[in-house]
Amino acid sequence: MSSSISVQPTRTTARVERFETVVVGGGQAGLAVGHYLSARGVDHVILSDEARVGDNWRRRWDSLRLYTPARYSGLPGMPFPAASGHLADKDEVADYLERYAERFELPVRTNTHVRDLVRKGSRYTIRMDGVASTIEADNVVIATGAFQRPHVPRIAEQLSPEIHQLHSSEYHNPFELPEGPVLVVGAGSSGAQIALELARYRKVWLAGRDTGHTPRRIAGRDFFDWSWPIMQRATATSWLGRRLRTSARAGGDSLIGIPERDIRRAGVVRVGRLESHRAGLPVCGDELVMPRVVVWCTGFTADYSWIDLPIFGEDGLPHHVRGVVTGVEGLFFLGLRFQHRMTSSLIGGVGYDAEFIAEQVARRCDAAVSG
Q: Cα torsion at 101, 107, 110, 114 (round to 10°)?
């Protein structure tokens, strides 16, 4: 005699979490706005794709240091724990961010990579990789900053496969690279610092236009003691701010504390921009160079491909006023370069924008409760 057991299929419903506000990004911008949201009693969560707060700094190259002194490198409510003129290294910054999150008991959810953001009705829906549940929120603050995706020019694909190539985000120290001469492409701060470090051990070319030099000390004081008050006043709507913004976009930032003579004395060979190749070898200006390694110090671009909302211009950047997105309610950005001030994307400057954004979010939450 046989018997059968009928098994009914089990219906599972994905869990939905709801918050007043979701902050996407657990770096300096996300932590700063989280601090102000907590102070205003706003229910929120901070989503970070890092395994540990500060890991985005820990992955940078070993010798990296901030160019802003410690007195201009603190987040709201917690000064950077170092002598005021100290230039913190990347691990000190990472540990500071981690301690900041712990001190203020910020609701950071690590190992959480946001897959997409959409708007359904009056609320936002966020889905995450590897997580069955979704998150709904009345407000979303995009605090991923302006520089998420390493930018490498297309000409990289045309260079010889015999040349080892990497972006500055992958560079750690000279000893991890294959032996032989190096071409550093990009003559901004990152490119100059990496070129100087590599030149201690091998031949180095530095490709790119000279962006100029700003002395580290002026009249006995640090450059930022003079410039920081000016940068704080140079808002996006001021005459000075508009002029400085246009100048920075056109010519790049000058090298702070790295004079041209130091580059020459280190043996770094200056060459023109890399815009063509000859038989797979880089041609920089009019000069053919033969590197074993190319380090691309060509910056980063924004990556908002995961946001499915009609808020972007032809340049791929969001339409906003001081981080408040125009045309869509309850959506904010934080940590963008020149978001409102020249210092908006810096550790010591993001707090001003974070306070403003947190205030806008709190007002929406209060209006929702009273309405």
A: -130
H or E stretch covering 353 = helix 350-370
- pLDDT digits 0-9 by tens, 251-299: 566 788 898 999 999 999 999 999 999 999 999 999 999 999 999 999 9
Q: What is the pTM of this model?
A: 0.90
* Distance in angstroms (rounded) separating the CA atoms of residues 90 and 83: 16
Across 177-214, b (16+ Cβ under 10 Å) vs e yields beeeebbbbbbbbbbbbbbbbbbeebbbbbbbeebebb
Helix axes 90-103, 28-39, angle to 10 degrees: 20
Same-domain status, 80 and 110: yes
**CB burial class (10 A; 0-12, 13-18, 19+) of residue 114?**
buried
Closest CA to 214 of 247, 265, 250, 255: 255
What residues make up the domain containing 171? 150-212+254-296
38: Cα within 13 Å, side-chain hemisphere: 17
Asked whether residue 291 is domain-assigned, the answer is: yes
CA-to-CA distance for 218 and 256, rounded, in angstroms? 11
Residue with tokens 């070898």: 281
Alpha carbon 242 to its chain's center: 22
CATH no. for residue 79? 3.50.50.60
